[in-house]
Amino acid sequence: MRLTRELVDHIAHLARLGLSEEERERYREQLSAILDHFQRLQELDTEAVPPTFRAVEARRPLRQDEVQPSLSISELLANAPDVEQDQFRVPPILDT
Q: 9-32 pLDDT, tens per residue?
C-alpha cells in the first residue's frame, strides 16, 4: 500500500511531529513498506490454526506449599513507625 504525502502529513500532524521534506519522503517509504508487510500477513490462510490465548504457552513452576520459619513479632515490628499491643498502628482514615 503506497501512502500519499497527504496521508503522511496527516499522520505526522496526529503524532505532533514536525517533519522536513526529506523526513516526509523517508517515512512515506518506511510506512508503506510496513503496511505492505501487514498486507502479506493478511493473505495467510489461518483457517486451520486454532485461536490461542498466547502465542507461547506460559508455564509457571509450582512448588509445594510448606510452612517455613518466619520472623518473630518483635522483628516484624522493629521498623514500624508506630506500634500498639504488638500490632502496626495506623492513622484513622475516616473521621467519625
A: 999 999 999 999 999 999 999 999
